[in-house]
Design the sequence.
DNA sequence: CTGTTGCATTTTGTATACAATATGCCAGAG
DNA sequence: CTCTGGCATATTGTATACAAAATGCAACAG
């Protein structure tokens, strides 16, 4: 238990500020379209404007903010077209992750996913939606890890962050929930069978359902 | 010819600095692994350190630089695995672009691409490699534009920038050149025929050839 | 010789000041 | 009434100053 081989985790204020802002955006506290006032936010986050501006650059690169010269930064408000475009790319990335995972998965990893699926079933049966979301996320993260392509994982992460705020706010009714759980079961079966085409197809269909849910909740807001 | 409806193009120093640094990296003047000294670069580019640091954040987001806390920024040196990972994702994105383009292309756009193909043939026949590269890039940009998915285009652009420096330095011999020209011809034929699967396959094969060229030139350097 | 410590210098991170641009409001002209 | 111009203020962009961390080198101990 010697700490000498355990390097300290280092961070900088821009990184911390970006993370904090990302959360505020995803949770809707900084709503789409909100203009970000540097002075106010720097006071609120307790940092000077310099690291805050660097944080803005990071979030703009992730597509969460838009920056126009001399007009500051604004939270991106995704249009229906933006959503469609993002889901199209997400589908390609998830499909790729599925194909890669099929070629790279170990039996132990399959067992791990089966255990997660059991957790998902339990959460579903107990109507425990937060637990369901947590396991859902864990399953997708695990798939990405099995795909073992960091470029893919990072590209997906940035894109997913944009959609996350919207998905956070879209509804999940019982029929959709039942269907999603069944889809996860099929996905893990396809992975265990090392059937790349099937897994790819299932991941894309699953994502299409999410897309419909997001677009439907955007309709309700308009 | 009234300029009143023609807004001035605005930029900021971080954006200009990022663009300049991107070029320096792609052309190899800032070689992979180079540590970037803020004072030197700010003098060289004629800007203060603040916009330069913002530019670093932008380039880091594109994967061209890596930033470690208190150790500044360094030009990314892509390993063979990085190259493989990036090409894998690029293939998925190009395949998607091909499929989307097939569904969205107009006859006029097909004619435009045929004209570009003729230019490419002429450059090839005249052994004019710079012109060939220019047209090659124009064809791929045109395909992306036809796909009409800005998220895809931006994702592709960031990823492509990482590989651009490596591709810039990889060799193109006569046999490969002949093959690449023929492949472009086939791509445009598939697009004209609205054959999404064929175009997807051709784009991915084409990219695989580029990947081999890049990896081969990395071998020569090691 | 190697390894450690101390210190000066350099570099990076952040705060603050200054400059440039945008915004909002009021007064005046038509 | 609307539109325009002028001005004060606020905000954003950038430069500079200060603080913190890293690096390099010399001296010393073993």
Sequence:
């Amino acid at each position: 238990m010697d700490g000498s081989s355990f390097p300290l985790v280092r961070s900088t204020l821009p990184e911390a500020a970006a993370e904090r802002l990302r959360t505020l955006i995803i949770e809707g506290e900084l709503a789409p379209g909100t203009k970000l006032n540097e002075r106010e936010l720097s006071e609120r986050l307790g940092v000077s404007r310099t690291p805050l501006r660097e944080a803005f650059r990071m979030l703009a690169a992730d597509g969460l903010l838009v920056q126009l010269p001399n007009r500051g930064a604004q939270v991106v408000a995704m249009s229906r077209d933006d959503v469609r475009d993002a889901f199209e790319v997400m589908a390609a990335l998830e499909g790729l992750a599925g194909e890669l995972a099929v070629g790279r998965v170990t039996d132990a990893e399959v067992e791990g996913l089966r255990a997660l699926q059991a957790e998902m079933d339990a959460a579903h049966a107990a109507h425990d939606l937060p637990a369901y979301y947590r396991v859902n996320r864990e399953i997708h993260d695990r798939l990405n890890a099995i795909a073992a392509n960091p470029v893919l994982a990072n590209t997906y992460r940035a894109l997913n962050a944009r959609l996350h705020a919207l998905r956070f706010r879209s509804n999940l009714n019982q029929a959709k929930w039942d269907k999603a759980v069944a889809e996860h079961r099929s996905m893990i079966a396809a992975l265990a069978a090392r059937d790349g085409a099937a897994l790819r197809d299932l991941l894309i269909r699953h994502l299409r359902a999410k897309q419909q849910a997001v677009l439907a909740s955007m309709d309700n807001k308009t």
Summary: Chain A has a mean pLDDT of 89. Residues 167 and 210 of chain A are 8 Å apart (CA to CA). Strands of chain A lie at 35-36, 65-68, 72-75. The domain at 13-75 of chain A is CATH 1.10.10.10 (Arc Repressor Mutant, subunit A).
